[in-house]
Amino acid sequence: MSVLDSMKVYVKKFIHLSSVAIFEGFQLMEEEVCFDELSSDNCYQYSKATQERIITKWAEK
């Protein structure tokens, strides 16, 4: 997202298709789990929640 900003690209519409995995990912974030203890499914969920936060923060600008 920072690349778009640095290039001064104007985005008229942005469609982000998310996943229900974000809900489990947000729960993992709140629990502040250790990455070494995450399964591959948990890593996917965590990454989707992280992605959702990054895109939401960018879109609010």
Notable characteristics:
single chain, 61 residues, mainly alpha, 59% helix
Strand-residue proportion:
under 5%
The best one-word shape is elongated
**Count of helices?**
3
How many structural domains can be distinguished in the coordinates?
Answer: 1
* Strand count: 0
Largest sheet: none
Unreliable runs: none
Structural class: mainly alpha
Question: Could you report the average pLDDT, rounded to the nearest whole number?
Answer: 87
Alpha carbon gyration radius: 14 Å
The arrangement of helices and strands along the chain is HHH
The helicity comes to 55-70%
> What distance lies between the first and last C-alpha atoms, to the nearest angstrom?
11 Å
Describe the structure.
- Helices cover 59% and strands 0% of the residues.
- It has three helices and no strands.
- 7% of the residues are buried.
Briefly characterize the structure.
This protein has 61 residues and is mainly α. The protein contains three helices and no strands. Helix 2 crosses helix 3.
Topology:
Blueprint (H helix, E strand, L loop, with lengths): L1 H5 L14 H11 L8 H20 L2
Helix pairs in contact: 2-3
